[in-house]
Amino acid sequence: MRFNDKELAHLSLGEAKLEGRLNYKKSSSGNITQTSGGIKERWFKLISNLLFYFRINEVGQIDLKQPAGVFVLENSSIQAELSTGVPFAFSMTFSDDPDKKHYFIARTEDVVHNWVSTIKHATYEYLRSQMIILQKKINNITGIDPLLMYPHNRGTIRHFEDGKEDKEASFQSHISLLTKTTVASKSSVIEGNLIEL
Fold this sequence. Notes:
By secondary structure, the chain is α+β, with helices and mostly antiparallel strands. 28% of the residues lie in helices and 27% in strands.
């Protein structure tokens, strides 16, 4: 995936849905205890559907100027890891590389649950499914699909029950009110509208 480093760094400075200190390790074998390399402590920051992580130095200070990396949370699967032998762990895999797991270790079970549920709710797939559910509920109550209303269809409102379409716009403009007066010539209509303003 291509992205602009400066824009991504600027985006990482925004307000986070959730942020905190987690231990992190990626594994290609699928088991956190069988992989080489150490577990690194990082500061994670969830902004929209982007999970940024930042380095923490030996003193414990967080370098928030430049993120060390970012996960785009689309086509991902996240779950609590109960059988890893490591307490308070959860993992994330991506559909394009299911053999590689990213492990995260928190300090308590509540923190794990909070991260897992917040990350699941931050994905585009989840937000789209919620939109479809709300769209169906509104359609069942009103008989009108809210996504087919103005401005997408230029004022045409579709009623699903009777198959009728209303051609009037669902809003009024000051221009439409002024042009309803009938005058003989176009020039007098324009002058009449200017005078009324």
